[in-house]
Design brief:
The protein has 4 helices and 2 strands; from the N terminus they run αββααα. By secondary structure, it is mostly helical. The protein has a two-stranded antiparallel sheet. The radius of gyration is 17 Å and the shape is flat.
């Protein structure tokens, strides 16, 4: 990865992170009806996010090993994207173990941008 590509990724991540903290979304809670699907006492959505994070972590390890073996520069971007996706999955599913935190949704949105950017750079790399 040359300096221009690294700088582009770094500036994009800073730009996204800077503006994501200024975005606030207001949620309305309907106290009468609980629409969350439960499985074994946990919300199914959070369990699926945790599973997605674990799968992305496994794919990160596989692509990192593949990069070590082949030295294909595209795999660097793909493995970074999988690592960011795993981080996003773990952040979103944190409510399984901890209380809800308000900054997670904007950070998850910023991670979506970074993941797409990494996959795009992986496609462009020769």
């Amino acid at each position: 990865m040359n300096k221009k590509q690294f700088l582009l990724i770094y500036i994009s991540l800073l730009f996204t992170a800077f503006f994501s903290f200024f975005v606030s979304a207001e949620q309305t809670v309907n106290l009468e009806i609980d629409d969350d699907i439960q499985f074994a006492g946990f919300e199914l959505e959070e369990l699926l996010n945790l599973g997605s994070g674990l799968l992305a972590l496994a794919l990160f390890i596989i692509t990192a090993v593949a990069y070590k073996r082949t030295n294909n520069k595209r795999l660097i971007y793909v493995s970074i994207a999988f690592l960011l996706f795993a981080l996003k999955g773990f952040l979103i599913s944190h409510e399984l173990f901890f209380n809800e935190v308000s900054w997670i949704d904007p950070v998850a949105s910023a991670l979506n941008f970074a993941i797409i950017l990494c996959f795009f750079l992986g496609i462009l790399k020769k």
